[in-house]
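Researcher: Let's run the pair from yesterday's discussion. Sequence first, then tokens, for each.
Model: Starting with the first of the pair.
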Amino acid sequence: MHDLRIPAALIWPVVMPWLLFALGLPTCLGIAMLLRFSKLMTGALILTAGNGNTSFVGQPMIYAFYGPKHFATGILIDR
């Protein structure tokens, strides 16, 4: 990770989770308003639908399938 060079090609993989969260937020708010969810339920919906935690499953799979060379990219994508 310390020797990771960040080329311009890595911008999209790093930005994509944030972009999906930004696009999912209005969708979740719309669903919550339509179904009259409480603020607590709305917050839970936004966090679970908008954020994926790939640390437990995704990172080991990246390491197993692509090796340590691409593991650092997976860490960057994981937010």
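Model: Moving on to the second of the pair.
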Amino acid sequence: MTVTRIAQSAIEPVTLQEAKLHLRVDHDADDLLIAGLISAARTDCENKLQRTLITTGWRLMLPGFPCLDYQRLCDLEPTLLAQAIRLRMGDVQSVSSVIYLDPDGVQRTLSPTAYELQSWAGQWLLAPAHGGSWPATQSSLQSVTVNYVAGFGATKDSVPAPLRSWILLAVGDLYSQRLRSGDKPAVPHQFVDGLLDAYKVWS
């Protein structure tokens, strides 16, 4: 199973102006640097949360549709339990397409009426609609492709304030430590990681 981002947002949860105000920087010489630190901090935030901040597209590739024991979620109805596909990096807003290779190797696209998106205990699950089942697929490492859109929203203001604050604090830490040598690689952010806990997707 692989999950990859297929589109980048044109905006960040924190603007350059907001970051400069936080850093008390009143010149333009470091604008490119600060913009890069915003992107790095946002990426780190998303990795820690396993959640997308600004709406972007994602692609999940599977060797086949789920079968028994694929996903164990204790309170789900058995049929859904056996066949649910977990979509990572939620909140999942929509599923763009579900594409698969049939047993003869022909690429097919499932009708949107053949599946449904459900949210359960902070997880986003894709399951066959109306108690149905997934079609048979060819035996391949990439037999099934699910394209979907995830994120809190399309604007920076849709991102919860604690997460935006974490990014600002991380940018401040990275900016102040930008001259550290390679033998001291990681700037620890444990002092503010508590801001993320309420939004983290726990496995």
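Researcher: Give me one sentence on the second I can quote.
Model: The CA atoms of residues 13 and 157 lie 7 Å apart.
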